[in-house]
């Protein structure tokens, strides 16, 4: 079982100590005996420990920066939500295919933002602009927020903030099973708690440092029992030898564990594996022994929102994925809603 994340090293921006959450976190890590360093800005972090790139990368992934979110303009987050709410960036997992490989660039450390009330105020402004329509906020665009929240509790605060809101809804997804501190949050049914799930082959070979499938499913049952609307993202859907059987087993395990009441308002999102040329370079540098298939000649190109081509599966492969996984969902969870396939 993957233990809850504990940073090896913590950096703090001086401004963060002006916020109650910043003071609380520094005291927490000092009491835990974690090394704490000061930095004027996360951009100024240099000379992380390590003899070579490989070591430095892994130490960076276990480094936490406590800082202030400067930009309070939220990115859009289609098709999952209207906006991405920035509570943290970076992830402690080591998923080989992750798009954070390139968006985080050479700074793969985890950052948590302590000006949480200012972030909520910005979210309120977005809600007011769209009222009386509801506004959905995605909290996991730039991080696996659950993976760090047992330390920060910023996600828990966000759940309760949106629970009290008139027009707001919160969504996030995780590969971690460390959910116990979120079970008593006053969510008022306004937060959809989603788990990223995949077949055993993909979790074994491409998702080191994350909770195993049975742990995620056990956590999902706890979340459903706590009254949260539940969802699953099957991602990335990756074609390997025996993929049809692998995904069938995954759905069988899910169906065997999920209580009937959790199926009434259940959503699925399906995302095929994709990569870009810059991502391929970074993946092969950070995980040189990966089994991940990254052959551009076997894929088709799709124009991405950041002005760069993505390599996705060929049309007939995409149809096979949609038909196969769609049939599994209809068979095991006939009441569930498939939100999208991309």
TrEMBL record:
<dbReference type="InterPro" id="IPR023897">
    <property type="entry name" value="SPL_firmicutes"/>
</dbReference>
<keyword id="KW-0749">Sporulation</keyword>
<keyword id="KW-0411">Iron-sulfur</keyword>
<dbReference type="GO" id="GO:0003913">
    <property type="term" value="F:DNA photolyase activity"/>
</dbReference>
<comment type="similarity">
    <text>Belongs to the radical SAM superfamily. SPL family.</text>
</comment>
<comment type="subunit">
    <text>Monomer or homodimer.</text>
</comment>
<dbReference type="GO" id="GO:0006281">
    <property type="term" value="P:DNA repair"/>
</dbReference>
<keyword id="KW-0408">Iron</keyword>
<keyword id="KW-0949">S-adenosyl-L-methionine</keyword>
<dbReference type="Pfam" id="PF20903">
    <property type="entry name" value="SPL"/>
</dbReference>
<keyword id="KW-0227">DNA damage</keyword>
<dbReference type="GO" id="GO:0030435">
    <property type="term" value="P:sporulation resulting in formation of a cellular spore"/>
</dbReference>
<protein>
    <recommendedName>
        <fullName>Spore photoproduct lyase</fullName>
        <ecNumber>4.1.99.14</ecNumber>
    </recommendedName>
</protein>
<dbReference type="InterPro" id="IPR049539">
    <property type="entry name" value="SPL"/>
</dbReference>
<keyword id="KW-0479">Metal-binding</keyword>
<dbReference type="InterPro" id="IPR007197">
    <property type="entry name" value="rSAM"/>
</dbReference>
<dbReference type="InterPro" id="IPR034560">
    <property type="entry name" value="SPL_Bacilli"/>
</dbReference>
<dbReference type="GO" id="GO:0051539">
    <property type="term" value="F:4 iron, 4 sulfur cluster binding"/>
</dbReference>
<keyword id="KW-0238">DNA-binding</keyword>
<dbReference type="GO" id="GO:0003677">
    <property type="term" value="F:DNA binding"/>
</dbReference>
<keyword id="KW-0004">4Fe-4S</keyword>
<keyword id="KW-0456">Lyase</keyword>
<comment type="function">
    <text>Involved in repair of UV radiation-induced DNA damage during spore germination. Can repair thymine dimer 5-thyminyl-5,6-dihydrothymine (known as spore photoproduct (SP)) by in situ monomerization of SP to two thymines.</text>
</comment>
<dbReference type="GO" id="GO:0046872">
    <property type="term" value="F:metal ion binding"/>
</dbReference>
<keyword id="KW-0234">DNA repair</keyword>
<dbReference type="GO" id="GO:0042601">
    <property type="term" value="C:endospore-forming forespore"/>
</dbReference>
<dbReference type="GO" id="GO:1904047">
    <property type="term" value="F:S-adenosyl-L-methionine binding"/>
</dbReference>
């Amino acid at each position: 079982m993957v233990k809850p994340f504990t940073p090896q090293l913590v950096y703090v921006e001086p401004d963060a100590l002006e916020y109650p959450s910043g003071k609380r976190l520094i005291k927490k890590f000092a009491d835990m005996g974690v090394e704490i360093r000061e930095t004027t800005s996360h951009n100024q972090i240099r000379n992380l420990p390590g003899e070579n790139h490989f070591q430095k990368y892994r130490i960076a992934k276990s480094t936490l920066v406590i800082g202030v979110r400067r930009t309070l303009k939220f990115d859009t987050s289609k098709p999952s939500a209207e906006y991405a709410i920035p509570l943290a960036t970076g992830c402690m997992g080591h998923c080989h295919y992750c798009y954070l490989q390139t968006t985080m660039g050479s700074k793969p450390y985890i950052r948590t933002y302590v000006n949480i009330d200012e972030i909520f105020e910005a979210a309120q402004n977005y809600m007011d602009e769209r009222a009386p329509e509801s506004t959905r906020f995605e909290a996991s665009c730039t991080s696996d927020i659950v993976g760090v929240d047992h330390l920060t509790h910023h996600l828990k605060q966000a759940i309760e903030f949106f629970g009290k809101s008139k027009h707001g809804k919160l969504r996030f997804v995780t590969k971690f099973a460390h959910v116990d501190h979120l079970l008593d949050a006053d969510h008022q049914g306004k937060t959809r708690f989603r788990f990223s799930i995949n077949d055993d082959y993909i979790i074994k070979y491409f998702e080191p440092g994350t909770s195993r499938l049975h742990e995620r499913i056990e956590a999902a049952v706890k979340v459903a029992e706590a009254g949260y609307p539940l969802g699953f993202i099957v991602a990335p859907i990756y074609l390997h030898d025996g993929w049809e059987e692998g995904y069938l087993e995954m759905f069988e395990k899910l169906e065997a564990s999920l209580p009937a009441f959790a199926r009434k308002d259940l959503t699925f999102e399906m995302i095929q594996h994709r990569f870009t040329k810059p991502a391929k370079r970074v993946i092969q540098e950070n995980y040189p022994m990966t089994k991940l298939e990254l052959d551009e000649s076997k894929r088709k190109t799709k124009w991405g929102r950041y002005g760069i081509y993505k390599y996705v599966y060929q049309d007939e492969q995409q149809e096979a994925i949609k038909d196969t996984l769609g049939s599994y969902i209809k068979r095991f969870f006939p009441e569930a809603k498939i939100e999208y396939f991309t």
